[in-house]
UniProtKB/TrEMBL annotation:
Taxon lineage: Bacteria, Pseudomonadati, Pseudomonadota, Gammaproteobacteria, Lysobacterales
Domain of life (superkingdom): Bacteria
Name of the protein this chain belongs to: GNAT family N-acetyltransferase
GO MF, one annotated term: acyltransferase activity, transferring groups other than amino-acyl groups
Domain N-acetyltransferase: 2-145
Family annotation (InterPro entries): Acyl_CoA_acyltransferase, Bact_Acetyltransf, GNAT_dom
Amino acid sequence: MIEIAPLSPPDQSGWEVLARGYKDFYQTFVPDSGYQDTWQRLMQNRELHGFGAYLDGKLVGIAHILFHTTVWVGEYCYLQDLFVDERARGQGAARALIDHVAAIARKRGAARLYWTTKQDNKTARALYDNLASFNGFIRYDYPLV
């Protein structure tokens, strides 16, 4: 059975393995110091919030969220990162993390929960298509550095 809970200090090494797996999947380089900085921000639990999916007590999935204001309707919840260890996929961890985040967003009164993924991420999109609506938007990134 999958259990969801906020990330806590004993999760750091397991979290880093999953966070690196996530960044590798998206071919995004983060220096070692970036993982340490992100972990510290998650542990402060102010602007960023981190949750773990645990299978038999072992951390097998992570979700990172943040809330932000919007121009028209108050606040949105952005599920920035979602990753499940390849060996634990298909057992409900990603769905449980999304459902948990949705409950938090509802409780906080957020107007929307949203996330992005790569167009060719077929495995994740099969789940997402069952849980949410694809609204047709495509994201562009404008380089600032």
